[in-house]
Design a protein that fits this description.
It is a single chain. The protein is mainly α. The protein is built from 13 helices and no strands. It has helices spanning 8-32, 38-59, 71-94, 100-106, 109-121, 128-144, 149-152, 158-183, 189-204, 218-244, 247-254, 257-271, 283-317.
């Protein structure tokens, strides 16, 4: 089992960079969708990331030997690749129907789905405070959509469609994350991402419009470049953070991403009041987003505190000689 050497400053800093990058990403994607479809955007992101990871793996002589692994692991890798492919595509596509604040709030369901998947599949414990965190996520979502609940129960409006797409995106990411836990026993996280990106580049080829790159404005080209760099930097910092900090602590910091999204859009609207891609959230909706974050943090951190209490109790019973 991977046991990171604790370096709180590096772990927190790298996790915070990831949260900022993931928080800004849907804002850039929303703007970019005006000139390029979601599948093509994802393909370019995978292409750039795949080339960089391939170069890095070759330089370090760490290219994965896929042919030498058992068939069972290959199937797990295949399913994980399909899941992450769908996750990227659905999340980007959902922004055709909803704005960045809503997408970031709903995607927080990954925290809940991941803990439920861990409890169901890996028989991980589900502590009382995590149940409270689950309740806070549910209440947070209700408050976030407090002024839109009536519309959401109908599938006749675009926002409901967008929310449903994000929920499915969260489910597919959870499938990927749960499988990655097993795949990490065979591959490094960089090798897993490279294999998935390489797979996705090929799978998406029949569905993309690469020539649309030539029709983008300079601003949109800059946004596409940012999205590609975002993929590398965010996942690179995320992976490196896990080398310095507990995964649960990293997850807790990543739960701050919706605040980055909401704060960034509030600033954009302040500077440019006519900006159209913002939900202009009410105080109640922002409170709901805060409860979502608190719930996610509780779910992520409680196992660490529980383990420390158990370790401390064990040390008191069996003091060092």
């Amino acid at each position: 089992m991977h046991n990171p050497t604790q370096n709180h400053l590096k772990g927190f800093s790298l996790s915070l960079i990831t949260a900022i990058m993931w928080g800004i990403l849907p804002i850039a994607l929303k703007e970019l969708l005006a000139g390029m479809n979601a599948t093509t955007i994802v393909w370019y992101r995978f292409l750039v990331a795949g080339v960089v990871l391939f170069t890095w793996l070759v330089f370090n002589n760490q290219l994965p030997a896929v042919r030498q692994i058992p068939t069972r692991i290959r199937w797990m890798l295949f399913i994980a690749a399909i899941a992450l492919c769908i996750n990227y595509s659905l999340f980007s596509f959902s922004l055709n129907f909803i704005n960045a604040e809503t997408s970031e709030a709903v995607i927080q369901l990954t925290t809940l789905f991941l803990i439920l998947g861990g409890v169901t599949i890996y028989k991980e414990p589900f502590f009382g405070m995590q149940k409270l965190g689950t309740a806070l996520i549910v209440v947070g979502l209700l408050l976030f959509f407090n002024d839109r609940l009536v519309e959401l129960v109908s599938f006749d409006n675009r926002e409901t469609i967008g929310v449903v797409i994000v929920v499915f995106s969260a489910i597919t990411w959870t499938i990927y994350a749960l499988l990655q836990k097993q795949l990490l026993q065979t591959f490094s996280s960089v090798q897993i991402l490279f294999l998935i990106y390489a797979f996705s580049i090929v799978v998406f080829l029949p569905f993309i419009m690469p020539s649309s790159l030539l029709q983008l404005t300079q601003f949109q080209v800059g946004l596409l470049l940012f999205c590609c760099i975002n993929t590398l930097v965010a996942y690179g910092c995320f992976t490196e953070a896990l080398n310095y900090w507990d995964a649960s602590k990293v997850s807790a910091v990543l739960a701050m991403a919706p605040l980055v999204t909401i704060g960034s859009l509030k600033l954009i609207v302040f500077l440019s009041p006519e900006y159209e891609y913002s939900d202009r959230l009410s105080i109640v909706s922002i409170l709901g987003a805060l409860l979502l974050i608190v719930g996610s943090v509780l779910i992520a951190l409680i196992p660490v505190f529980s383990q420390r209490r158990s370790d401390a109790a064990g040390d008191s019973i069996n003091p060092p000689e």
